[in-house]
Amino acid sequence: MTNSTAPSDTGADPADQRKRKRASRESSLSEDQKRQNHVSSEQRRRQAMRQTYDTLVDIVPDLTSAQSRSELQIYAKSYNYLVWLYERNRALREQLERKTGSSAPQHLAWEMPQ
Question: May I ask the CATH class of domain 31-108?
Fold first, then answer.
């Protein structure tokens, strides 16, 4: 009985042999099918990016869907909004500490990444 995990007579690892075997295997897709798959994948990627930008537009107050916008505008206004949120969080924690005499719970403390 042979061990299926033992190296073959060539001394190569069976996993390496499988990799080589897959790499040399001819594709069953035609060039047109490959192109269509590529186009379809690219369309899905672009749609996902558009949805992400639309979500940012919905969340960030300075962005509106009515105005034309570039990726740079979306990034810049999103960054500015995050900076404002971190600053607002810091101010509210300080206000809480002044009024109660104790610091805010750690899970409420946001610190701006450097």
Answer: few secondary structures
